[in-house]
Amino acid sequence: MQSSITLTPETARNIACEAYTYGFPMVESYKTLYKQAIATSHPNFKACCCIASSYHFHRTVDQA
Description:
The chain is mostly helical. It has two helices and no strands.
């Protein structure tokens, strides 16, 4: 399959700039989420309280 669209270096640069502008914050957000909620050995890990309260809530609901 051939494409009839030609991509100039300027267009490619603009696409890459837009992709970085929209993608970078999402990647940083996931990185922070991973450090705080998944990586138990990381110093910023904070999920232990959330997990405990979530576990208690679900057990209470299930037992009702």
